[in-house]
Amino acid sequence: MKYLKYRHLFRLFEHIQPFINYSTPIEESFPSEKILVIAPHQDDEAIGCGGAVLKHTKAGKNAEIAFCTYDGMKRMKESEQAAAMLGSKRNHFLQFPIRTLDDNKNFEENLQMLLKKTAPEAVLLPFWFDNHPDHRAVSKALIKIKDKIDSNIMVYAYSVWSPLNPNCVFDISDVWEDKKKAIECYKTQTASRDYVKIAQGLNQYWGEIKSPGMQYAEAFFKATVKEYISLGKKIFK
């Protein structure tokens, strides 16, 4: 009986196992012209997927960033600096208080309108089990609005607080220094925790795991939005 509390994890692994390629492919860029990065908090975009976003924008493609929560003007200014460093063409500020996204109908409606307005071909967001309620709330909101969004959108789920089982990685060795500068824009956050060191360690780990000698890599769980939502419904039913 003590294992019952892990049933969601068991169910998750059973569902994602077919997606896991033991020779995880390296992607050079997103297979789309326009991506939307959803950052529950101002810094998640730089820490979780900043390298892949940089590769996308440096290739001349379009990226926009949506910041879901608000934590003061100073952090907002930092996010604008970081977004410019990442090459974002346009930023969206939803301005919800931190830790209020879960089961929030207003947030769900805002997310739906944002996806309709921006019409991205790929969306980057935190993975289902990333260890913060606001991070999980973004994915859970997709379940609520599934009938009102484009089912052809690709999802690239990233991690900030918790590891994930990836089915694709991006070699970000050539853009690591720029990613580092983007994270360093968040002085209000790095003053209390070394997010550069956290990101560096995780990215070095995935680089070495994927290919000995690769300096830095970001890992993602990739799926169609329909399959990603199906996975979530199995976990959170």
Account of the protein in words:
This protein is an alpha/beta fold. It is 45% helix and 19% strand. The protein is built from 9 helices and 7 strands; from the N terminus they run αβαβαβαβαββαααβα. Strands 3-2-1-4-5-7-6 form a 7-stranded mixed beta sheet, with helices on both faces. β1 (34-39), α2 (44-58) and β2 form a beta-alpha-beta unit. α5 packs across α9 (225-236). The chain is globular, with a radius of gyration of 17 Å. It starts with 6 loop residues before the first helix and ends with a helix.
Biggest pleated-sheet summary: 7 strands, mixed
Low-confidence stretches: 1-6
What is the CA-based Rg, rounded?
Answer: 17 Å
Number of strands: 7
Beta percentage is: 15-25%
Order the strands across the largest sheet as they lie in space.
Answer: 3-2-1-4-5-7-6
> N- to C-terminal separation?
20 Å
Outline: globular
Could you say which structural class the secondary elements and strand pairing correspond to?
Answer: alpha/beta
- Average per-residue pLDDT, rounded, comes to 92
Summed up, the helix count is 9
Topology as a string of helices (H) and strands (E): HEHEHEHEHEEHHHEH
Helix content: 40-55%
List the helices and strands and how they pair.
Blueprint: H1 7-16, E1 34-39, H2 44-58, E2 62-70, H3 73-86, E3 90-97, H4 105-118, E4 122-126, H5 133-144, E5 154-158, E6 168-171, H6 176-184, H7 187-190, H8 195-210, E7 217-224, H9 225-236
Parallel strand pairs: 1-2, 1-4, 2-3, 4-5
Antiparallel strand pairs: 5-7, 6-7
Helix pairs in contact: 1-9, 2-3, 2-6, 3-6, 4-5, 5-9
